[in-house]
Design a protein that fits this description.
Layout lengths: L1 H11 L11 E9 L2 E2 L2 E2 L8 E10 L4 E10 L4 E14 L2 E6 L13 E5 L3 E7 L6 E9 L1
Antiparallel strand pairs: 1-2, 1-4, 1-10, 3-4, 4-5, 5-6, 6-7, 7-8, 8-9, 9-10
Length: 142
């Protein structure tokens, strides 16, 4: 149930896709559970959407932003979302914790955790989606 609530917050948190370009260290989602995008985000039938695009940007040494475009299967529309997050990097491991809105009942962080290489961020632990998630490391964008 909390996974469905978190995914619903992802959809509700949608903003204009005309946001300024992302800067910082960028990672672009390539696949979810081995399925190339577009791919189902969660196994929960209450969350009938597929990820069309997903980018993670590390903006500072402890915070970042995730932008995603999802297709909501049951109504046939797409939504854009922007989410701030905090992260901890210890060697080649990185844990991402999305910020919980006030008074929301959110899943306890970390939400994503995995290994960072020069080529990719491989999320092998996710409490909010199917896994593994494979993000291609795009380097720095300025």
């Amino acid at each position: 149930m909390k996974r469905a609530l978190f995914a619903a917050l992802l959809i509700v948190a949608c903003t204009s896709s005309a946001a300024p370009p992302l800067k910082g260290e960028l990672f672009v989602l390539q696949s979810i559970d081995g399925i190339p995008l577009p791919a189902p985000y969660a196994e929960d039938r209450l969350v009938p959407f597929r990820v069309l695009a997903d980018t993670i940007a590390l903006l500072t040494s402890t915070s970042g932003e995730r932008r995603a475009r999802v297709e909501i299967d049951n109504i046939g529309t797409t939504r854009f979302s922007r989410e701030a997050f905090d992260y901890v990097r210890n060697g080649d491991r990185m844990e991402i914790s999305f910020r919980c809105p006030p008074d929301a009942d959110c899943i306890r962080p970390p939400h994503l955790a995995g290994t960072v290489t020069t080529e990719a961020y491989l999320v092998d632990m996710s409490v909010i989606s199917r896994s593994p998630l494979l993000y291609r490391h795009m380097g720095l964008a300025e």
